[in-house]
Amino acid sequence: MENCIFCKLANHEIPTNIVYENELVTAFEDANPVAPVHTLIVPKAHMDNILGLSDPDLMVALKDAIDQVAEIKGVKESGFRLINNCGADAGQTVMHLHIHLIGGVSLGEKLI
Ligand code: AMP
Ligand code: ZN
Q: With 0-12 CB in 10 A as exposed, 13-18 as middle and 19+ as buried, what is 99?
């Protein structure tokens, strides 16, 4: 999608710090990390949010990326949190589906 920053980052049109990549998904570092580990897992194809996700192959690719990023970032054993903001009340600011993988510190039990 034209003028979508995450389309450009996920498809190498703008350089970024890529952590992991497969055929359908790119994972790169969040520009404003909230924890020692904060990686964004992003489909290469544009969809505004998780409600646009229907391709089973992409679902598997996203799960594989979660697995690989957790391994690469060293939080598979210690644990991590996945966050997906969908829409205005969730505070979604970039309108291209992305999953935050956050960890490297004890995040506590509260969700919000
Ligand atoms: P959300 O609020 O869920 O839409 O999250 C958007 C996230 O994208 C925020 O955590 C931002 O720090 C991050 N972000 C915005 N622009 C960039 C960028 N150019 N490269 C990496 N991360 C970005
Ligand atoms: Zn996009």
A: buried
